[in-house]
Input
Amino acid sequence: MPETVGAQIAAFLDHLTVERGLARNTLLAYGRDLARYAEFCAARGIADLAAVTPSDVEAFARELSGGQHLAPASVTRTLVAVRSLHRFAATEGRTPSDPAADVDLPSVGRRLPKALSIADTQALLDGIDTSDPAGLRDKALLELLYGTGARISEVVSLDVDDITRVLLSADESTGLRLLGKGGKERVVPVGTFARAALSRWLGAGRAAFLRGPSPGPALFLNARGGRLSRQSAWAILKDRAAAAGLTAEVSPHTLRHSYATHLLDGGADVRVVQELLGHASVTTTQLYTLVTVDHLREVFASSHPRAY
Output
């Protein structure tokens, strides 16, 4: 008996989980995109992926682009998920062919990472009032984000022992271990500004957030004494950016972009930045070099006597 579309999608998601070790958020995105595709197939009376034709996939692409008010990037992401599903089904022998193999994806303009200038970054970090425990926490949080280029999920998952191991090491080059996407671990250096902010937070700030007789191990705590969430960390950054007078949209990933861009502006090798960011492919990291080229072009245009 042929498998249903839903069963085939479930098998594909299991493959992504077990064989490829994709991160939870990535799996959730695949699930949402493929649920939309399953609804499309059901509406067309398609009960088995083996019955899907290239014209069906093209019709789905047209529907996404025209009728669901999705951004081009969202359309492309959904179609990538569909293409991956059909390739998996064909490779595993669940379908006789891959109907999505030759379907063109819509063109999406390259989105350059947004980075703060060095002056704005300094204004953000140096403008935090550290006279109270919340200020000490926020200073440590943002210094660590910018000082290591870590993802917000990596930072809020840290425990006190993770950072204490770095701060108490006799070797100042001891790096911080971060657990990235797909469970991949990497070690990053922690600079003196982040180290100082973290030492002050642990020594004079964190105790004010502890609640109950058995405090948890989390490095960064919320007002209830629990682990700081990604959403709360984002809110902290937005509030601190507003207080610093920054007009640009700022997110935790903005600090990661700024970290990479400032390294490249300072002459760092793109392969080194790739390792520091934990990118699986250098192609992803090379996106930041486009930002740097734009910066160099601006400097040339404003500085060279024959640039205009």
Remarks:
- The CA atoms of residues 239 and 284 lie 30 Å apart.
- Strands lie at 176-179, 185-188.
- The chain has a mean pLDDT of 85.
- DSSP finds 13 helices and two strands in the chain.
